[in-house]
Amino acid sequence: MTKQKNMPIIITAITMISWLISIPTFADTPFPQVDGDWWQISGNRTNAAGELTHDPIDFCVWKADDGSWQEQACIRSLNPSQEVKRLLYRWSDNNITNLYWETNGVNMLPDTSVGETFGGGLTSPHVLKNDDGMYYMVYGGGAGICLAESSDGINFTRHTNEAGKSIIITASAYPPNDWPRDPCLMKYSNTYYCYYTVTGKQSPPVPGAVIGRWTTNIYDWSMSTNVIVSLGGIAGDNPWSAECPHAVYRFGKFYLFRSGQNSDTYIYCSTNPLYFGVNDDSLFLTNFAASYGSKLDGVEVIRYNSRDYFGALTGNPNGSKLAKLKWIATNGPPRNPSVYINDGAATVTVENVELTLYAEATEPVEMMIANNAAFTGSSWTNYSYYFPWMLGGSFNQENIVYVKYRDSDNMESETVTGTIFLLPEPMLFWILNFGFWICYRMKLKSKISIYNN
């Protein structure tokens, strides 16, 4: 790597050091909580005789450019004699809340020509949509973390380096000679972070760990950016106690979900994206068994229209399930307020629309909606996630809706806006244009008459 390529990493490293001196306070830290019932979106695979043949495990969910919801999972063969042990399988649906999404079949098999292996197979996909609209998928390739790209969120093509290999991240310094797996991508500011699992398979075994790397270039991940971000502590110190890491940035802090001992997920919160505790539980928030009464494994967070959803494995035999996620805090006003008009549509031809309204942390109990920034003529009304509304602007221009929320202590959120362009209906458009044409002709005829006289 050249000195020029190293410069962003050096600058980022300085930022990392500054993070180390800041210690988060949990007094106003929102906790993630399951909001309602789970619904299952996929299940195990069986043969014609109804015998279980493949067991779906680590998965990811995202929304593609065509509006469809996509799930991709690693499924492992239960047949010891089968050459390909693990592969990537795909499901899809038009609605995230539907049960048992449509089966789309095998999406990717190991390709030994690009450095992937049949023995390890393909594991643990995770998809990130970038700011430029590209979708990046990281996955385990048996010998390291691999990368594939897509412009539509459905059709992915492997990225290969100058050597023709798909692997972008190889073995970590800890533990030595152990291949990384279970990757998760997160982007914060202009930096990409990749979190992954290493399992201590040495003899004697060593504790499993979550490793983090960062880069300002999605393709180049230097060994010098390899750090242990989570190890040991309450989640356990056996070889399998740091699996399926998943990280998100919310409310000015970083949250890490780590599958630890007893197949439960442990949640940490930090101001530093590369440190959640090494044999240190000071950044530990909670685990699902303790807080919610039941264990959850393979947890991930899915974001859509400013609303979060939980994804998790269903159990053994495995499948995938989703639930709404809400963030709960004891202090402060409702946070991250949002409003979407007609589910985020760009245009509309009628003034009557549907608003999707949401705020996090301290739950809103009331909301105020207006077509003007001063909220003139508006009053507080009971909070509702969906709400019918009439736009107040004119046709052929952008219409703005203003919203704010308040909680049971009358603490108000900041004002948030939603925009949509109001087009005239096609018939009205032609009537108006015909009317303009008639007026133009009459005016032109009048001018000609005056000229001739």
Description:
The structure is a single chain. This protein is mainly beta and 453 residues long. The chain has two domains: 3-326, Glycosyl hydrolase domain, family 43 (Tachylectin-2, Chain A), CATH 2.115.10.20; 334-422, Immunoglobulins (Immunoglobulin-like), CATH 2.60.40.10. Helix content is 11%, strand content 43%. The protein is built from three helices and 30 strands. It has helices at 3-20, 288-292, 426-452; strands at 31-42, 45-46, 52-63, 69-77, 86-93, 102-108, 123-129, 135-140, 145-150, 157-158, 167-169, 181-188, 191-198, 209-215, 227-231, 243-250, 253-259, 265-270, 284-287, 300-304, 307-313, 320-328, 334-341, 347-348, 352-361, 366-370, 381-382, 386-390, 397-406, 416-422. The strands form seven sheets. A five-stranded antiparallel β-sheet has the order 2-3-4-5-6, with no helix packed on it. Strands 7, 8, 9, 10 and 11 form a five-stranded antiparallel β-sheet that branches. Strand 21 and strand 22 (320-328) form a beta hairpin. The longest helix has 27 residues, at 426-452. Residues 1-12 have low confidence and may be disordered.
Topology overview:
Layout: H1 3-20, E1 31-42, E2 45-46, E3 52-63, E4 69-77, E5 86-93, E6 102-108, E7 123-129, E8 135-140, E9 145-150, E10 157-158, E11 167-169, E12 181-188, E13 191-198, E14 209-215, E15 227-231, E16 243-250, E17 253-259, E18 265-270, E19 284-287, H2 288-292, E20 300-304, E21 307-313, E22 320-328, E23 334-341, E24 347-348, E25 352-361, E26 366-370, E27 381-382, E28 386-390, E29 397-406, E30 416-422, H3 426-452
Parallel strand pairs: 24-30
Antiparallel strand pairs: 1-22, 2-3, 3-4, 4-5, 5-6, 7-8, 8-9, 9-10, 9-11, 12-13, 13-14, 14-15, 16-17, 17-18, 18-19, 20-21, 21-22, 23-25, 25-28, 26-27, 26-29, 29-30
